[in-house]
Design a protein that fits this description.
Low-confidence stretches: none
Oligomer: single chain
Shape: elongated
Strand content: 5-15%
Number of helices: 14
Helix content: 55-70%
Number of strands: 4
Length: 394
């Protein structure tokens, strides 16, 4: 019984000591308070719109035929694009884009209608202002939807000319009818792709840079937390320190993953308790992940270098910018290092579906990561303690 009481007593002292170290370090508090509280608001505010509607587009129609005019009319009727200028040359359209009056160009060559009439391929070229991804997205979606609609129309006309009319022609053009229903993101909002990932990425990065900054400071001052292992087991030290950060980051997680989406009216289908369960798994994972890698930090300034190097890699490996199914084997293996690989996907899935069962694989992977990093963090502390002891003996 005395061992259990001593275990909890020592763990509590370590917990209190870690909180004291955190709140007395102004640099760590700036990271936790500014980055943890301001960044979620900042990113949601920047990407609050998520879509660009009625994007001004310039059209260069050199064909001037019935098919090209029909294409332009339908494009102007889409939600994504609005015809702002009818130019006589591509150079005139480029000038308008350079002046910021339009953000996209549709170029229809002079042989467009002739090729279609002769059963050949008609080509339409599009150019988008890449100053923001949203312009490119609106341009691509608008022109593609109109292209598909016009392809069906042309096929129907050709089948009609061959003697197929009515339902017969429709079955030939579209043998399998389908309805395009976007369950979770009907407007294809960029916000719902990016912000969900960003909110959990902020938690990992804030935890990592805050804890490693503190670790580097303590080692510079000769007060490494590994010295605590002389009067207690490494496991309880890691747990005591982890409990301090768990308290802080569970609060930051509720703020960033629940309160901020509510403030900005983001569509979140998950309940408070389901999101809290996910946060508990993820926060525990990022804590021991940070403890493990902070064992290699000897100077406070090293964190700034890691900030520039690690952040883009971690974002890429979430599968946000590139489908994870298309990752090379090497990068798939590297992605298993970061908690956000599974945490960001789980948060996006849970927010869209509202079902914990849908993220069961991610929770399982985060549990494995947590256990592995807990063992590694404890082993790293014991190793550092022995190195300090040998150095002091000399």
């Amino acid at each position: 019984m005395s061992y259990i009481q001593n275990w909890f007593s020592e763990t509590w002292k370590i917990f209190v000591n870690e909180l004291r170290e955190v709140f007395h370090d102004s640099g760590v508090m700036i990271i936790f308070c500014f980055a943890g509280l301001v960044y979620p608001l900042l990113y949601n505010w920047i990407y609050s719109i998520g879509t660009v509607d009625e994007m001004p587009v310039a059209v260069v129609d050199l064909s001037r035929g019935s098919y090209s005019r029909d294409y332009v009319r339908k494009l102007d009727a889409t939600r994504e694009c609005a015809i702002a200028a009818d130019c006589l040359s591509l150079e005139e359209a480029r000038s308008l884009m350079a002046d910021g009056k339009v953000h996209g160009i549709v170029f229809i060559p002079s042989d467009f209608d002739r090729n279609i009439v002769h059963g050949e391929q008609g080509i339409i070229s599009t150019y988008a202002d890449m100053s923001t991804f949203l312009y490119y997205k609106s341009m691509t979606i608008g022109t593609s939807l109109v292209m598909l609609d016009q392809v069906h129309q042309i096929q129907t006309e050709r089948y009609a000319a061959s003697g197929f009319t009515g339902q017969d022609a429709l079955q030939l053009v579209e043998p399998v009818q389908y309805d395009d229903i976007r369950l979770y993101n009907p407007n294809i909002s960029f916000t719902l792709f990016f912000v969900y990932m960003c909110l959990f990425m902020i938690l990992q990065q804030v935890m990592f840079y805050g804890s490693t900054t503190l670790a580097g400071t303590l080692r510079e001052e000769g007060r490494s937390f590994a010295l605590l292992a002389r009067r207690g087991g490494a496991g309880r030290i890691v747990l005591g320190r982890g409990a301090a950060y768990f308290l802080i980051f569970l609060f930051l997680g509720v703020y960033g993953a629940i309160l901020v989406p509510w403030i900005f009216h983001m569509p979140v289908h998950a309940s408070f308790w389901d999101t809290l369960v996910l946060l508990a798994f993820f926060v525990a994972d990022i804590i021991f992940f940070s403890f493990t890698w902070s064992s290699a930090i000897t100077k406070r300034e090293t964190v700034l270098v890691l900030l520039l190097f690690v952040s883009p890699i971690a974002v890429f490996l979430t599968g946000f910018t590139w489908p994870s199914s298309n990752f090379p084997v090497f990068w798939k293996i590297v992605s298993y290092v970061f908690p956000t690989t599974f945490g960001c996907r789980a948060f996006m899935t849970l927010s869209n579906t509202g079902s914990l069962s849908a993220i069961a694989p991610e929770l399982w992977y985060m549990t494995i990561q947590t256990m592995v990093y807990y063992v590694l963090a404890s082993a790293a502390m014991l190793l550092e303690n022995r190195l300090i002891s040998r150095h002091s003996e000399k």
